[in-house]
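Q: Hi! Curious about what F-box domain-containing protein looks like structurally. Here's the sequence.
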Amino acid sequence: MSSNDYYCALCGSTFSNYHIAEKPHSAGLRQAFRSSQAKKQALNPARDEGEGSVQESPTREVEDDVPVENDEMYTYDPSIISREDAKWVYDLQCLGINTATEVPMKGFVSNISHQSTYGMIEVHDHDDEDIFASDYFSAYHDTTNSGKKVYPFHPNCWDLFKIAFEYYSTGEKPVSAVYWFPSLEAASNLDKALLFDVMSRHGNNQLRRLSGIDYGEPDPPNQARWVARPGEELFLADPTRAREPNKAMIAEKWSSMPSINCRPSTYPPQEIQKIDPFSRLPYELLSMILSELEASSLIGLFSASPHVHRVVSDIPLFWLEAMRSSMPWFFEMQEFLDTFSKDRTIKSGADLDLNRLRLLCLWANHITTPRVGMTGTFMGIANRRRIWGICRQLIDKYTSIISVRRL
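A: Let's find out. The predicted structure is below.
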């Protein structure tokens, strides 16, 4: 363990799971947590916890009359996340650059490496044959002025980055096998030196994680030492685990959803044109806007705009395609939708299955929204959703540089 912790560049989380308590949290701490959530909700009545609200951790606000054991104040609850579940955070890889090569410089990604002291990382193997088989590098900041600076991340987070890069660089949905077993070809066209440059623009003055990058809500701790706040077990949830249980729960939820008709908008077309600015947009432009929206924004617009409500209701497979485009990180849902498409032939927008798809979209957005106090099977997918958002920020910066270079 180093004198100061450094965190994953792709998720912002720690590289150790020793913060998990030996026994489940006491009733006092759980009561304090519920109290802090209730107070936060009272201050933000328009936002519930299913929409990504940031709830206060009980370590930040504890009632004076609530008995809480001191040794559990800054720990995670083992009944929510076990050390076995969180062992993935110990693994570390890093992105570096070989400054010994001639221009253009060559980037490399290490194999499993190890933390050393004072922000150093011991790298044993990597994909650059020109670098010694074992060497020490500095995390985030070149403390020795030797040019040996690297950006650390968990292997699971790196796999997600490669999948996201493949998805956004090709514009096509990856095949199911790539979701879970990234092949050697996945992200083969990634310029590691350029990615290193992107991270360097956000890491020169930061010893712990990238600066200027939104790590999502809840925001991971960024102190000199990792602070384990009860209710934030999400940060240790493996984003690549529990595929089959999640698929089974999606199928179970689908089968239990009611078959109800979704009533079309009752506004006359003339009135819609007066009150709804979206009615003035060409269909092609509106379709482009809808395809770019996150699921939560899409659902909100569907409810708020009579014109969007009417247009969407006339598109037979709108909600199926909406989930495909707005939830690329929800691999289990993508597989379910593929199966759904093969098993059903839907020809009418009035088909009851389409309305159930809308309900499924609402449910999927809710249960995968990262939030404080999250527990259960979908905690890992919520963390995956958060990490995917971080990866996309870096990919967008990467592709913008590529676009400028091509001018």
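A: A fun detail: The mean pLDDT is 78.
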